[in-house]
Every structure is written in structure tokens, then in C-alpha cells.
Amino acid sequence: MPVSLLPVLDRLFDDAGLFPPASRPMAEALEAHERARSGPHRQLVGPFICPVARLDELEACVAGGVPRPPALSLVIYKGEQRPSRMIVRPGVVQVEAPLGVRLPDEAVRVQRYLELPSDGDVRVAVDEVVRLRARVKVRCGGLTPDMVPTPARLAEVISACAARRVPFKATAGLHHPFRHYEASIGGPQHGFLNLLAAASAATTDVGLDVLIRLLETEESDANTVVERIDRHSRELLAAIGSCSIDEPVADLQALGLL
Hints:
This protein has 258 residues and is α/β, with parallel strands linked by helices. The protein is 34% helix and 18% strand. The protein contains ten helices and ten strands. The strands form two sheets. It has an eight-stranded parallel β-barrel, surrounded by four helices. A two-stranded antiparallel ribbon has the order 8-9.
């Protein structure tokens, strides 16, 4: 270290500015996305994530002059009507939903992510995602410590995805590069560089113990993580949903990795 990770970070961060803890108003989130997408680190920015239930709000903002995101990832929650007409609108590139939610048939035209439950048998859940011809989504954090999966649980998910050659998307709590103690929730949060390193290692069929060590490594031993990140990382870790693009960029710049 330092070494530029820019090639590995290409389109890594899907913009979840509408979601906690940022929870920006729609117009503000759309404006921030446009700044990030047209700024000096635009290469890192992926689709804008929007709940299906807020699409009318997005359209109202666009009608009022706010720039339209060129790429959208739509989130459908359990119990919501399956809006087939919304899936086929221009710009929709992804659909996300909890595992168990039946997606509209039209969703086969775009990339689909199904979120694993926070407990239960990981392998069974990943097998079901594969059967449905989708990709895995895993929640890595939250507003309370109990919402953060253990390194062992996260290692199981990564290993199961590698064994089945199914890419995964990680979301929540991944604002910073390395595993750290987060005072706002009173517990640890995972780091996005830890995930990239573990994803690369998993493609070489290492044991869970290696993945757990990589996920547990903190910034004090940064080289162990950074040296394990390579082009194979993105074969498995397709994207990270983050409510902030600025925070990851600032941290990576401070580390000399951008």
C-alpha cells in the first residue's frame, strides 16, 4: 500500500441515498446522485436505488427539473403489488426483493437480486436464489448491532456464492473500507474492502477460516486485506449498496487507494 484500486471499484457503489441512515428527500438524493455520477469519481457510481412505491415521487421530481438517473434499481417489498409496467420502463437495470417475493415475469429482462434472510441455512437459501435464476443480496449492517451479521455468517454466504458461481450484492453499513467499531450503533461494522478481499479469496476455494480472518481484519493490518483484492473480487462481489458515495471516496483517498 498505497496502490490504486480504481479498476476493481468500477461501478461498485449502487446509490442508496434514499435509505437509512442518510434517508435523503427524493429531490436531494437525485441531485446528489447526479453530482456523484458527473464528478471526478463517477467511475465508482452504479445505479440509483429506488423503492417501487416511490417511483411517482421520483417522476414528479424529474418533471420539476431534477436530472433523471440513467440507471435505476427498483426495490420491491413483501406485500407490495408486483408492478410489471414499472419493470420495463427505460433505465431500469435491476430489481431487488426479499427471497420469497415473486417478481413480475417482466423482471427476467433485467438483473435480479434476492435478499437472503438473516438466519436459517445459508446453503438452502442460496440454492433457492440460483433456482430462481437470480443473484444473491446480503444485508451486512443496520442501525443496531443485532442487524450486523457475524463474520462467520457472512463468510458462509460468500463461500456458498463462490461454490455456486452466483454473484452477490452487499448492502447496509458498508460506508468504510475496513471492519471497525461504530459508535452510532454500539458495535462493529463490516468494511467494503474486507468483502472484496474475501470475495477474491473465495474464488480460490479457501476454507471458511480464511474468509473469516479477512472479514475481521481492521485498518491496522490493511495490507493483508488490500493485497488480497484483485480482478477476481468482482467476479463474485457484483455491487455494494451505499447511502453515501462521498464517505467511501474520502476514506479511499485518505488511504492513497484512489
